[in-house]
Amino acid sequence: MAHYHDLEHIHPPLPELGEEVTLYLETEAEEGLLLYEKDGEIHKKPMEPAKGGLRVRVPVHVSPFRYCFLLPEGFLGSHGLEKTLPRYDRFFHLLAGSLPPWWALGTVYYQIFPDRFRQGRKELAPKDGEWLLMGRPIRKKAWNEPPGPEGAWEFYGGDLWGILEALPYLEALGVETLYLTPIFQSPSSHRYDTEDYLRVDPHLGGEEALEALFQALEKRGMRLVLDGVFNHVGATHPWFQRALKDPESPERSMFTFYPDGSYATFWGVKSMPKLDYASPLTQERFVHGPRAPIRYWMRLAHGFRLDVAHSIGEGGTNRKNARWLRALARAAKEERPEAVVFGELSYDAIPTLRAHTLDGAMHYAGFAHPVMEWLSGRDVHGRPVHLDAQETWRVLWDHYQALPVQLRHSMYTLLSSHDIPRALWRLKGDVERFKLAYALLFAFPGSPAIYYGDEVGLSQPNPYARWQGDPYCRAPFPWEESAWNLEVLTLIRRLVKLKRTHPALRLGGLLPLEAGKGVLAFRRRYQGQEIWAFFAPEGARLTLPPGIDLIAEKEVAGEVETSFLLFQPV
Questions:
Q1: Range 217-228 average pLDDT
Q2: Position 2 confidence tier, pLDDT thresholds 50, 70, 90
Q3: Are 306 and 322 in contact (CB under 8 A)?
Q4: I need a labelling partner for 185 at 20 to 30 A (CA). Which of 232, 300, 327, 514 fits?
Q5: How far apart, in whole angstroms, are the C-alpha atoms of residue 358 and residue 444?
Q6: Do domains 7-94 and 508-569 have the same CATH topology?
Q7: Closest Cα to residue 474, out of 111, 109, 108?
């Protein structure tokens, strides 16, 4: 007997705390109970028959609201049917109150590293040796030069005006939301060492350029997400300089100093002193005050990605991390109710997201890492690893089931980023596997993210033996179309269109699909419509009923040989 319960079976899907919701279960069972946790006890409520299944209405009294179903066959939780009452972590988790805006569910992101994307105004570019970064002069590089080992010191001169110029290209690609890595005044090219949160870097065009970009995106129905570096500041920030020089300064409380004179940093990097959220002054300047950047910039942005969100906390640690993530997200939404706030959670995001903190996370552990390990044979650190298709599916399926139901579709799902090696480079230039990876990205639940340049086949200049992402994954975008892989570009444009136009790909639940050894396969389902997805790096022969090959836009039936396929049965 099949049972199915996902986002489409929750009405309303984004409830407020205390609001009643209808929970529907597709099932052949004729009776069942809803079991839900309240104040540490299990409460029961009978379900009533409904077309094709059972339903029940219940108030969402707490967030997360944890529940499962008791059926004649056993207990049905997020991870399937079990004979005994599942652990709470195998219940469905439903959130209430502050939730992702509807537009963010399944939105197509495009990530831009501003210095490396496009130059709009040459006069804004930093000059060679214009200032010192950690005692060494910065370097101005030509656009066609490959990035070298001193990435933070290397400037190419990309700016926000250049992004504005590129909007017709991005609109034709079909992307809906731009995510920009930091744009606020900083001494490095990556700008994760902020020295003024209220000033858009003049070398990027300043606030004038940001406002022009924001307005142009709004006119196109597109959105903008900024990078919030709120775990640490740059060592050149005036607040830290005052704290460093004067132990009696109010700013001293914003940082964690040790008896030997050292201070807490991000990853031991002295140029990035860590903020202490136990300090009322830190709370005022980053969360509660009107000039807190997460509030201040909501007039020119639709959301924030929180850098190293897992590290934010008190006393030089991530203590009370969930509290401060909730506070930051709430602050943004108080200024713009339809804002999205997601976090960089490099490994297991489930505990943080189940604590009702953020609208989602960068989906490293539950997508990027296992997919690229399967397809490349190496993990994100370059170590050999072997996953077969079925093992990869089990990882994807486990993380999907464990996520709060509404966040399954707002996860920032990716293959490449500014922090990890580019997918094409990890695949040693294998374009067919790269195309398969991107087809999987767009077929899977979540909000797919294209890292700038991936869509035209941008790779890295470092030899494969030198395993490293940053800074080699941050090469300038090649605007000469002769350098583009048009086959890849055509595919990604098609995948974007499918994601935007097929509700089953945008909001559909995830279901297993048996397709034989060596094939990773699953179904996406929404309101009775299904899309079947197949991925086989070594190729596979499938036997299919009549239907449509969505990528090729042609009818297929019977035996089909393929390495990847998005199929809609008729």
A1: 98
A2: confident
A3: no
A4: 327
A5: 21
A6: yes
A7: 111
Per residue in 179-218, pLDDT tens? 999 999 999 999 999 999 999 999 999 999 999 999 999 9
Q: Are 149 and 471 in contact (CB under 8 A)?
A: yes
In whole angstroms, how far apart are CA 384 and each of 213, 381, 430, 439?
43, 9, 18, 24
d(CA 473, CA 460): 6
**Which tokens sit at 271?**
């140029």
Specify the CATH architecture of the domain 508-569: Sandwich (2.60)
Could you tell me the pTM of the whole model?
Answer: 0.97
Asked if the peptide bond before residue 259 counts as cis, ω within 30 degrees of 0, the response is: no
Which are the catalytic amino acids? Answer: 307, 344
Strand locations in 275-353, DSSP E? 303-306, 340-343
| Nearest of 555, 558, 533, 530 to residue 543 by alpha carbon | 558
Of the candidates 23, 131, 27, the one whose C-alpha atom is nearest the C-alpha of residue 73 is 27
DSSP state for residue 364 in the 8-state scheme? I
Which residues have a Cβ under 8 Å from the Cβ of 4 and sit 6 or more positions away?
25, 26, 27, 509, 511, 525
The closest of 279, 101, 251, 233 to 177, measured between CA atoms, is 101
| Inter-CA distances, 7 with 25, 93, 152, 202, 498, Å | 11, 11, 43, 44, 20
Contacts of 87 (CB under 8 A, 6+ apart): none
Cα dist from 534 to 45, 153, 419, 561, whole Å: 39, 44, 29, 11
Tens of pLDDT, residue by residue over 249-308, are 999 999 999 999 999 999 999 999 999 999 999 999 999 999 999 999 999 999 999 999
Are the CB atoms for 168 and 175 separated by under 8 Å?
no
pLDDT by residue (tens digit) across 24-45?
A: 999 999 999 999 999 999 999 9
Q: Can you point out the beta strands (E) in 294-385?
A: 303-306, 340-343
Question: Which CATH class, in words, describes the domain spanning 7-94?
Answer: mainly beta
Task: Write out the H or E segment, with its range, that includes residue 438.
Answer: helix 431-443
Q: In this predicted model, what pLDDT tens digit does every residue of 525-539 receive, in sequence order?
A: 999 999 999 999 999
Q: How far apart are CA 164 and CA 156, in angstroms?
A: 17
All structural domains of the chain with their residue ranges: 7-94, 508-569
Average pLDDT over residues 345-354: 95
Q: Is the pLDDT of residue 497 over 60?
A: yes
| Average pLDDT for 129-156 | 97
pLDDT band of residue 1 (cuts 50, 70, 90) is low
Q: How many residues appear in the chain?
A: 570
